[in-house]
Protein: CDK5RAP1-like protein
Amino acid sequence: MNTLARNSILVRLGRRILPHRTCVRTASSSSLQKREQLKEGPSLQDFLRGTTEAETSTVYIADRGKPIPYIAPETLRGQKQKVFLEVYGCQMNTNDTEIVWSILKAHEYHRTVNLKEADIVLMMTCAIREGAEDTVWNRLKHLRLLKRKRETNGEKPLQIGVLGCMAERLKKQLVEKEHSVDVVAGPDAYKDLPRLLAIGQRGQKAINVLLSLDETYADVVPVKLDRKSKTAFVSIMRGCDNMCSYCIVPFTRGKERSRPIKSIREEVLQLENEGIREITLLGQNVNSYRDTSDGSLEDAPKEATLLAPGFRTVYKSKVGGLRFAELLTELAEAVPEMRIRFTSPHPKDFPVDVLETIGKYPNICNSLHLPAQSGNTQVLERMRRGYTREAYLNLVREVRRIIPNVTLSSDFICGFCGESEPEFADTVSLIEQVGYHAAFLFAYSMREKTTAHRRYSDDVPEEVKQERLRRMIAAFRREAERLNSLFVDRTELVLIEGYSKRSRTDLAGRNDGNVKVIVPAGRVRSDRAADRDDVRPLGVGDYVAVRITGSNSQILKGEPLYHTTIREFYGNA
Structure:
């Protein structure tokens, strides 16, 4: 093209542009709106970076040191895609799934309970033991076949995401070993899920397993998965600083941080308005709760965290903040007709003020989880638990002195690194000496990254572990059966939770001590003083006085007497 022709084209182009620029000056409000939209949009660097990444990488991995790729806001919307949620592991995972669903629901995703309808499958996973991870790997094989079948048949694609502790622990291995996985999100990355899903839908794998020092999801109101249930989980803190040598949790959940009391109180009051009758406060180390959010506390005395006598930590004593006893007091007084439970605690964080608070309020359940892990002082030292057998037994005595009708539960591990037969025998004797109404008993499963993985050898043969596990279970069941028999002929306050799994003619609930109670369905007196003819049916969410008539190592059976309330029952007890 010669110079004359090129100049002619430029002149014509200039004539088209100039009127447009004049129009812009006369429509300043429209221009401002467009400028604001441009501020929210991508820069040239975003386009260049997006092009480069799409060409050079099939896996996006979130990194604090790198810019976040631009995603058009409209692609963050779910556009009514259906999400199928699967939960594995502890109560914390159930609550995390409710947080995830709240986030996705706000981004216009829909939930389905039918896998065949799903556009997206999200699995909330657990990494505490090898068996828990094996379950997820096997499930992923099934989902991979379903995904390939859809691709072969030309059906709608299936996006698969792995969330939670296993996602944090295995990270990129999940997309390298199991190619069907599209999205991997750790426990502190749930707010990033809409963006990760959008990246996954354009052909890339997306991973965000960054841990946070302050994320508590205090600004996210969980959406219950079971809308019929009258019980709910409330997360109050996240992470763990204890660094027990066998435990992977500090590496998958990060350091401890707590929600403000104000936000917890607001959530609990909202749950009460929705008809919830019982809450369980959740945290990896729930009773080390410490709210440091209130600016007014800056001038308050900086008191060190109190521990139970004879217990120690691997970290420096924490100073300042509102503690667990203060949170319990706040909630117990705010919702006097709502039961309050909590899990999972550490025995070190049961100073006298916490125990006295539990004993003071009738709506704080007299049921404590005291995870011992072992009954032998040398094994406890290798586990870095921060106490001896004697300190643990002293705590049990103090608990029973302050809370006379308390029921106890615990966690125990057999076959930990170097555990000898005499050391294991101390665990069995502790189970028999203390007596637990419930216990979670496991053979040791070594986890990578833990202190035990670095320092010790997993040297107890598997067959020995399993034999010891059977002996632990037998010892626990003998004591549980004996303890449950002591309920017979007592009147217990029971919260009805639903039908018994074995019969639609029976209802199931739990007493204050968290023991399951089976009662016949039907009508009972409307209150303690009501006439025999003044009756109404039992339903989910009802508090009822029950006379216990039978027991075994797992459940109680009883006769429902009358409808009641927490204050009425304990005021007359």
About this structure: The radius of gyration is 29 Å. The longest helix spans residues 3-26. The first strand starts at residue 59 and ends at 61. Residues 490-571 form a domain with the OB fold (Dihydrolipoamide Acetyltransferase, E2P) fold (CATH 2.40.50).
